């Protein structure tokens, strides 16, 4: 069984060469393991595409009433026109009422509304049409209403969705199709209905594959964008985005949030004495050692050059000092001459500093890192010199 699973994983990876590694393939099945930056960017894309889809439906839905006017009797046309105007108004509300917020639950709600509106329209219009005996051109136009589920399920292909998400959204549409068949049970053309339902299922599968392919590309692109290519830790831009989110969450719950500004000591001498390739190896080893000793939820950001910012959510200053002391004890690697790499570190905690934003927190940590350098390097400073003297007095 394990051998068979290995073959399946290998084949799946081969379908998307260079895009995802094996550990990331599970992300195509369910969103639960997605990291926060991917979730936020995916939520933004989903809402933007929902609004585009809703705008097109808001414009096109009432226009078809002109065709209905010429082929349907007045009572039926009036009812369908009212239904179309209601649906168009609902689509317009989705366009106006939703803006990208980076929240995945908001994105789910937007998608649910987008697909609920035409699904309700389909069931209601089908019931209206079933109450009239139509023939010729009227019957042909009425048949066109049956294509709405096909359009909806094909539209799922434009969203970067996981397998589970796609299935949950497609299920009500498939259920609506089955319900429409039940409503005309006595006159149902079973071969035609079965063929249509099979086609809907096939379109659902194709849309699912298309959505997962989009998600695979998005995962690969976001991974490349948020990681520093040399050290593999977070880039400064993605680090700033994450710190803003962590600071907001910490402020809402009044939770501690500590930032450590880490600067490798005498790094310029490595580049000058041994070359930039040796300097790159020192940086990579230091980043790897720090990352390997972090707790779940901690985040290391390459701030620039030999500077790193370590973000410690739900961590007060006392615990942060223990974390950094453990990192220093385990070491940051070796210089090309065999000497240990050391670092000057400044600490700042949100509540203790009464920081208004994450930028202020980083500035305080940066200032204390400078005090660590001027104070002899290879040390941690968690308070400004004035505060230290006051405490001693």
From TrEMBL:
Known EC number: 2.7.7.65
GGDEF domain: residues covered: 255-385
CDD domains per record: GGDEF
An example Gene Ontology molecular-function term: diguanylate cyclase activity
GO CC aspect terms: plasma membrane
Name of the top EC class for this enzyme: transferase
Xref: PROSITE patterns: GGDEF
GO BP: cell adhesion involved in single-species biofilm formation; negative regulation of bacterial-type flagellum-dependent cell motility
Record's catalysed reaction(s): 2 GTP = 3',3'-c-di-GMP + 2 diphosphate
Keywords: Membrane, Transmembrane, Transmembrane helix
InterPro entries noted in UniProt: Diguanylate_Cyclase, GGDEF_dom, Nucleotide_cyclase, Rev_trsase/Diguanyl_cyclase
Keyword set includes Transmembrane helix: yes
Pfam families listed in its UniProt record: GGDEF (PF00990)
Transmembrane regions: 50-71, 77-98, 110-129, 135-159, 166-185, 197-222
Family matches, as Gene3D superfamilies: 3.30.70.270
Protein name as annotated: diguanylate cyclase
Record organism: Azospira restricta
């Amino acid at each position: 069984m394990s051998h068979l699973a290995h073959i399946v994983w290998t084949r799946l990876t081969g379908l998307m060469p260079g895009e995802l590694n094996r550990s990331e393939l599970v992300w195509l099945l369910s969103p639960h393991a997605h990291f926060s930056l991917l979730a936020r960017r995916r939520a933004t894309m989903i809402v933007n595409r929902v609004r585009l889809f809703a705008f097109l439906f808001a414009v096109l839905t009432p226009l078809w009433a002109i065709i209905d006017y010429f082929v349907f009797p007045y009572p039926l046309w009036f009812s369908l026109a009212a239904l179309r105007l209601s649906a168009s108004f609902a689509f317009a509300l989705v366009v106006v009422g939703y803006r990208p917020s980076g929240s995945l639950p908001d994105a789910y709600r937007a998608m649910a509304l987008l697909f609920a509106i035409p699904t309700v329209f389909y069931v209601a219009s089908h019931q209206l049409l079933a109450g009239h005996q139509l023939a010729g051109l009227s019957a042909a136009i009425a048949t066109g209403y049956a294509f709405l589920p096909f359009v909806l399920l094909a539209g799922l292909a434009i969203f970067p969705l996981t397998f589970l998400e796609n299935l949950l959204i497609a299920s009500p549409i498939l259920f609506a199709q089955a319900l429409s068949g039940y409503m005309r049970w006595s006159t149902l053309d079973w071969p035609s209905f079965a063929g249509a339902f099979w086609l809907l299922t096939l379109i659902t599968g194709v849309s699912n594959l298309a959505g997962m392919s989009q998600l695979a590309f998005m995962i690969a692109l976001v991974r490349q964008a948020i990681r520093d290519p040399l050290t593999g830790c977070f880039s400064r831009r993605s680090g700033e985005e994450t710190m803003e989110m962590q600071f907001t969450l910490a402020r809402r719950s009044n939770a501690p949030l500590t930032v450590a500004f880490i600067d490798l000591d005498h790094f310029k001498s490595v580049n000058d004495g041994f070359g930039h390739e040796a300097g790159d190896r020192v940086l990579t080893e230091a980043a790897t050692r720090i990352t390997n000793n972090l707790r779940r939820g901690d985040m290391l950001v390459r701030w620039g050059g030999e500077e790193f910012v370590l973000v410690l959510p739900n961590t007060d200053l006392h615990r942060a000092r223990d974390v950094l002391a453990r990192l220093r004890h385990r070491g940051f690697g070796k210089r090309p001459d065999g000497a240990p790499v050391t670092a000057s570190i400044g600490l700042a905690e949100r509540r203790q500093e009464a920081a208004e934003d994450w930028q202020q927190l980083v500035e305080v940590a940066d200032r204390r890192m400078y005090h660590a350098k001027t104070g002899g390097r290879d040390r941690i400073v968690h308070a400004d010199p004035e505060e230290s003297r006051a405490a001693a007095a």
